[in-house]
Amino acid sequence: MPQTVLVAGVSRHLGGAFARRLSRDESIDRIIGVDVVPPRHGIGRAEFMRADIRSPLISRIISGNDVDTVVHMGVIATPRAGGGRATQKEVNVIGTMQLLAACQRADSVTKLVVKSTAGVYGSSPRDPAMFTEDMSAKQMPRSGWARDSVEVEGYVRGLSRRRPDIEITTLRFANVIGPRIRTAFTDHFSLPVIPIPLGYDARLQFVHEDDCVDAIARAVSIPGLGSVNVAGDGIITASQAANLAGRPFVLVPRATTGALTDLAKKFGLIDIGSDQLDFMTFGRGLDTTRMRADLGFEPAYTTRAAYEDYARATKGRVLDRLPFAQPGWSAVQAAEAAMRAVSPAPESEK
């Protein structure tokens, strides 16, 4: 069992939730949480140390505190959260390189758990019904968090070759959803009008935020497993998701979908990239046999139940303020009027 656990990314929602979850395990002597800013939420009995994983300071923290288990939750999912795409990529890729180099140098480190994403499989019309961990993307992610995660996993495999004594588990999560977490995907399904590509109804799979935290805790407590898919049972389609969220949706040509999401970004409502647009078009399915057989984990929420828990927290928030579409309006015009109705007011109007 681990004695001293370091959690990278502890000031983010899931990082803080994981620190609180780990704090309940009395067999763990010490928990160290690191991030570039102090957490605004509770982190249980974890000790916060302000550090940037891009900095050599992270190596001194790991070596100086005899850390034996590192949990990497420091990959930023959206450009806005990282201060822009350039900073996001630097944190995700350069930060991971520094963190793994620190693990390689520290003799005390014997276990690494990495929170990754099923986005590494990409989304394309040539995808299998279900991706197993041994499959690769039919079309590699072109940009954003998914592309960064492909690079992160490459560096993790490099560490496993250089330090075969370190037990490594990489958890590839389906889209994490729930009543408290905010992601590009939850933003998308919180829009007043949800664009869905005409001719497509993507198959979607989710994992509840509580199950995400529990799966990482499980991985910390057992030997390394390599890559493991984590998702709730079943699927729902994009149109079902819109209906469950209580949002009207509009079917638009795929090229127009990008225009609508660009419009939503302009109004500050979402922060979405091309990888999410591909996912909303083609969807993705994960085979979770290894999750049950090797990780020994059974999610408490199915895909539908996880989404319904999210939908209950957001349903009806903006519908009473939606404008009526005028005759002759295009989908983009109707969406723009709806987004203007719910976008944050300028400071002088608040």
UniProtKB/TrEMBL annotation:
Transmembrane segments: none annotated. Pfam families: Epimerase. Residues 5-221 form the NAD-dependent epimerase/dehydratase domain. It comes from the Bacteria. This is UDP-glucose 4-epimerase. It comes from Janibacter indicus. The lineage of its organism: Bacteria, Bacillati, Actinomycetota, Actinomycetes, Micrococcales.
